[in-house]
Design goal:
The protein is mainly α. The protein is built from 38 helices and no strands. The protein has helices at residues 2-10, 16-37, 47-50, 55-69, 74-87, 94-106, 110-116, 123-135, 146-150, 161-169, 175-187, 191-198, 203-217, 219-228, 236-249, 251-265, 269-285, 291-295, 305-318, 321-329, 333-336, 339-353, 355-368, 372-380, 396-403, 406-416, 420-431, 436-448, 452-461, 468-471, 477-487, 491-502, 522-531, 545-562, 567-576, 578-584, 592-597, 602-623. The chain is globular, with a radius of gyration of 29 Å.
């Protein structure tokens, strides 16, 4: 509320006629924009629409649509050129320029392609540029462009085939460059592409590459070959890569083979240490009792932060609190000082010396930290947790200056009409030209537009986390209330879930096709809707808060119920999958904080802790009373 009051005080008053005009412009814009995307005819653009700040975006989408359906290209090419001349390299040109350049390349109109080419990082266009240079007698410019494109571990688009063939014929792609690329593909685990490329390498140089391919493709069989034929030499990088893959995929097989591998290779303790570390980590991730034994054999030179952390987690899983304390003491200072390990060292002190010895350290965490571990510390000393809010201070003059920038007014409208991708493009462009302090001011504007994702991301990048009224809005109350009613979950918990899942972005879509505010997989959403006897949601429906949030809340509740009403397990299952959680269950009852700390997926471990923390903050904002976290201490029980 204080932010809105500040903005209203600073920004010029807006006449009701101006508001009415904007409303009309937005409505007409979205009607025309949607119709064009659906390839429907619309009437001529009104004067009001042409005066809208986003009118160039309507022109751009219309040009793209016409380009896609053009039978002849002369007129559309001319109109696109005119558009690009007017708007130059502004963000509004990015999509149409990209589409047009691909069209020009397909028509081999290389001089025009080169004239209007802008590097947007797209490999297909970069390779088309090389084809254009070759076709227009600019071969001298090509050699320097080949290596940066060529040296990647990823498969490149078909447009790169002809330029790379020219580069081979011209001896620009040498055997050395070919081998470098194969090694990049192998480091990324892309052995299929390495297979395709290795035929061009002379036989003697191909041998170690083929060995590496075999170590990735079938690490068990390849390691057995190494053991059976110790006289055959392998590159150490390839061998360790294959061993690491075997350790992660099949720790039992690696346990059986480690002594034989060490003997076959004639490794001393120092040289064997990296192999032992790979196995130690896999054993810890699988919560195997042997993990600590193998960690003890790792040389100090090979211990990194990951190794120190998982060695300590293995001790936590075993319940060896004296060892936990010892291992944390042995961590590098920067790691040991993190709140995570300060909490665990205090827990170790509590378990070995009693609560009185640990009380002061717990209290210090409660008094000085705002995070999941501080809230856990409060529970350990039977104290409700009270966050430490710190309101952001915005510079009034800077707020006024940034708010009137034409770029910001355009972004505001893109957000208003929910063209998020275009808004992000404009946002990134304008932020690159703002000072750090003005970026912080831009976050205030994003918040005022209800574009909470960007407001939170900017403040997080600047290390600002404690203005909870600013960082924890509740914009979807009706949908959340509906979800709470259907699922029986608290609204604070549902808000904590969607803040972590999507950061309030209703059109969020993950690489796994999880959609909307609660990041629902469509098949799970439809199954949940069927159980509730609700209409079957389409993918597009899942971008609507009124559909997504209730279904997501019920799906989470189903996960919690499936794990005997254990919230921690349900959250982990929602993020990492129920099959994985069943695999992670302890054989006997275990402290929940220990179980969470040993979740092997970094994303899921962080996810569970953050949803709990976000839920606490939402509860505190609603009540402004200290929040009990005693329920967080409920032990995890085997199924």
């Amino acid at each position: 509320m204080r932010l809105i009051i500040l903005l209203l005080a600073l920004l010029p008053s807006i006449a009701s006629s101006t508001i009415d005009t904007l409303t009309a412009q937005r409505s007409e814009f979205m009607h025309a924009y949607t119709a064009i995307q659906q390839n429907k005819k619309v009437g001529p653009d009104s004067k009001t629409l042409k005066g809208y700040v986003l009118y160039p975006y309507l022109q751009a989408v219309r040009l793209i649509n016409e380009l896609q359906h053009a039978a002849t290209f002369n007129q559309i090419d001319q109109r696109i050129v005119a558009f690009l001349v007017i708007h130059n390299a502004a963000p509004v040109t990015h999509e149409i320029r990209h589409a047009w350049l691909l069209s020009l390349a397909s028509r081999a109109l290389w001089p025009t392609f080169l004239e209007y080419y802008r590097d947007d990082g797209d490999a297909e266009l970069r390779c088309n540029r090389i084809s254009a240079l070759l076709a227009t007698q600019h071969e001298s410019e090509v050699p320097v462009l080949i290596p940066p494109l060529w040296l990647t571990g990823e498969r490149l688009p078909a447009s790169c085939n002809a330029p790379f063939q020219w580069a081979r014929d011209s001896h620009i792609i040498t055997t050395e460059l070919l081998e470098q690329r194969i090694r990049l593909t192998l480091k990324s685990g892309n052995y299929q592409l390495a297979h395709d490329l290795v035929d061009g390498v002379p036989a003697p140089q191909a041998v170690p590459l083929l060995q590496w391919i075999s170590l990735i493709e079938n690490p068990l069989a390849a390691i057995d070959e190494v053991i059976l034929h110790p006289d055959i030499k392998y590159e150490s990088t390839a061998l360790l890569d294959g061993w690491t893959r075997l350790s992660r995929k099949n720790p039992d097989a690696a346990l059986l083979r480690l002594p034989r591998l060490i003997t076959a290779l004639g490794l001393n303790d120092n040289d064997a240490s990296p192999y032992i570390l790979s196995l130690s980590l896999s054993l810890a991730w699988n919560r195997r009792s042997e993990a600590l034994e193998y960690f003890s054999r790792v040389m100090p030179k090979d211990m990194n932060d990951q190794a120190y952390e998982w060695q300590a987690r293995a001790a936590l899983w075993r319940g060896d609190w004296a060892l936990v304390n010892k291992l944390i003491n042995a961590m590098p200072a920067a790691l040991k000082s993190q709140v995570r390990w300060r909490y665990w060292q205090t827990r170790a002190i509590e378990r070995t010396q009693g609560i009185d010895a640990a009380h002061a350290s717990y209290q210090q965490l409660v008094n000085t930290e705002d995070n999941y571990f501080a809230a856990l510390a409060a529970a350990r000393i039977n104290s409700p947790y009270l966050p430490h809010p710190l309101a952001f201070v915005f510079d009034a003059a800077a707020l006024q200056k940034v708010s009137v920038l034409p770029d910001m007014q355009r972004i505001r409208e893109l957000v208003s009409v929910q063209l998020t991708q275009q808004a992000n493009s404009e946002w990134n462009s304008v932020l690159s030209n703002l000072s750090t302090s003005d970026q912080f001011v831009a976050a205030a504007l994003a918040h005022e537009w209800k574009w909470y994702e960007q407001a939170i991301l900017i403040t997080a990048r600047q290390g600002q986390f404690n203005d909870y009224e600013f960082l924890y809005p509740r914009p979807f109350d009706e949908a959340v209330k509906s979800g709470a009613l259907l699922s029986g979950l608290q609204s604070d918990f549902i808000y904590g879930l969607l803040r972590q899942e999507s950061l309030y972005r209703r059109d969020a879509k993950s690489s796994a096709n999880a959609l909307g505010l609660t990041q629902l997989i469509p098949s799970s959403a439809r199954m949940t809707a069927k159980r509730l006897k609700l209409p079957k949601p389409s993918d597009e429906d899942l971008f609507k808060p009124a559909v997504n949030v209730p279904l997501g809340a019920v799906h989470v509740k189903q996960m919690i119920t499936a794990f005997n009403d254990q919230t921690v397990l349900g959250l982990a299952a929602y993020n990492g999958g129920p099959t994985a959680v069943r695999r992670w269950l302890p054989e006997s009852t275990m402290d929940s904080d220990v179980w969470i700390e040993n979740i092997p997926f970094n994303e899921t471990r962080t996810y569970v802790a953050r949803v709990l923390w976000h839920s606490l903050i939402f509860q505190w904002l609603r009540t402004h009373q200290p929040v009990s976290t005693e329920a967080w201490l409920r032990p995890v029980e085997p199924m």
